């Protein structure tokens, strides 16, 4: 066997999930990525990027999963270093629609959700293992418990919503807060105040500027 040293491990690619409520500016974050970025859009909501020159492709709305798979296969062999996929919430719904066609009988609901979970798990593992920087956007889901505490999590269908952070090295919550009478966007990288977040590199501050290029530089830095 070949024994290695953990301090020789270096980051090669980033696999990140970015979630937040509608309108917070998740898609706009795509403009902060470096060159050789491809945006893969399932939501037809790229108007916020109209003043930027970024390559993008739109997933066929009549065959979302098939179209997405074909795009990812082509992207794998391309020179794009980063894929920005908008959004995982839409992908979740698309996989459920496929599973529902397999088990259309209402008595097969458990089988349908079981197949859906298999699809989503396989998909997340596949993208995680691509030799690219992968950034997913996702809507935010807010839940309140019996004593009024609110938790904020990625919005996907079923139990995969709570399990999905385990498939990413980075989970970021995009938030807006007031600072000196102005609204500031920031990326939360560590679980706090009901938000689920994580930074497996340990190189990021708890709150980072809403700029993915800066985050990539920090993660890949040797300091």
Structure report:
There is one protein chain. The chain starts with 14 loop residues before the first strand and ends with a helix. The chain has one domain (11-44, 53-220): 3-Layer(aba) Sandwich (Rossmann fold). It has 223 residues and is an alpha/beta fold. The chain is built from 5 helices and 10 strands. The relative contact order is 0.18. It has helices at 64-76, 88-102, 109-128, 160-163, 212-220; strands at residues 15-20, 37-41, 55-58, 82-86, 133-144, 150-154, 170-179, 182-188, 198-199, 207-209. Strand 7 and strand 8 (182-188) form a beta hairpin.
Short description:
The chain is 27% helix and 26% strand. It is of the alpha/beta class.
The name of the CATH architecture is 3-Layer(aba) Sandwich
Largest sheet: 10 strands, mixed
CATH topology: Rossmann fold
Give the amount of beta strand, in percent. 25-35%
Q: Give the total of beta strands.
A: 10
Order of helices and strands: EEEHEHHEEHEEEEH
State the secondary-structure class. alpha/beta
> What kind of oligomer do you see?
single chain
Keywords, separated by commas or semicolons:
223 residues; alpha/beta; Rossmann fold; 10-stranded mixed sheet; 27% helix
Secondary-structure map:
Blueprint: E1 15-20, E2 37-41, E3 55-58, H1 64-76, E4 82-86, H2 88-102, H3 109-128, E5 133-144, E6 150-154, H4 160-163, E7 170-179, E8 182-188, E9 198-199, E10 207-209, H5 212-220
Parallel strand pairs: 1-5, 1-7, 2-3, 2-4, 4-5
Antiparallel strand pairs: 5-6, 7-8, 7-9, 8-10
